[in-house]
């Protein structure tokens, strides 16, 4: 079995999420590696988790806009991909630090849409995927329409307004490259409620030859 489009899981901070998602053959698993972030994972815990994983790209998720601070952080984490929120950093991280780059765009603070498009155009040559996420579960129709229109020109993973009921329609009828889902807190170490994530991932499972 496989998943029909690209799937990234972000904000992972426990082995249960990581192993489950790797077993479901997601493409990327992301960990927030900044000490000030609520979902921060220490280098020691990170190492303990990623050594159990295979077949997935490991993403270091960073909000900081200081390239020197980012470079220092990355010396402590063995990652293949770096995700940043400052699109202006894409070229330097890709060209100077030699990482594959994901650029995160918050749907909660888009600002001027034309300015966003201009920034995306500049970052596009150095960016594998643009990650559109929101703290809200639902998106307005107008906002979703804007994102889906951008997907015609940019490689985008959508991380909001997704459910097991609509995920196949979104992936089959739009130009989205895939989706991104968020990991969560363990109920207690080793135990987790996977229901919502599992429902979405199972909904987009296909035979390998169908992908």
TrEMBL record:
<protein>
    <recommendedName>
        <fullName>N-(5'-phosphoribosyl)anthranilate isomerase</fullName>
        <ecNumber>5.3.1.24</ecNumber>
    </recommendedName>
</protein>
<feature type="domain" description="N-(5'phosphoribosyl) anthranilate isomerase (PRAI)">
    <location>
        <begin position="13"/>
        <end position="202"/>
    </location>
</feature>
<dbReference type="InterPro" id="IPR011060">
    <property type="entry name" value="RibuloseP-bd_barrel"/>
</dbReference>
<dbReference type="GO" id="GO:0004640">
    <property type="term" value="F:phosphoribosylanthranilate isomerase activity"/>
</dbReference>
<keyword id="KW-0822">Tryptophan biosynthesis</keyword>
<dbReference type="Pfam" id="PF00697">
    <property type="entry name" value="PRAI"/>
</dbReference>
<keyword id="KW-0057">Aromatic amino acid biosynthesis</keyword>
<dbReference type="InterPro" id="IPR013785">
    <property type="entry name" value="Aldolase_TIM"/>
</dbReference>
<keyword id="KW-0413">Isomerase</keyword>
<dbReference type="InterPro" id="IPR001240">
    <property type="entry name" value="PRAI_dom"/>
</dbReference>
<comment type="pathway">
    <text>Amino-acid biosynthesis; L-tryptophan biosynthesis; L-tryptophan from chorismate: step 3/5.</text>
</comment>
<keyword id="KW-0028">Amino-acid biosynthesis</keyword>
<dbReference type="InterPro" id="IPR044643">
    <property type="entry name" value="TrpF_fam"/>
</dbReference>
<dbReference type="GO" id="GO:0000162">
    <property type="term" value="P:L-tryptophan biosynthetic process"/>
</dbReference>
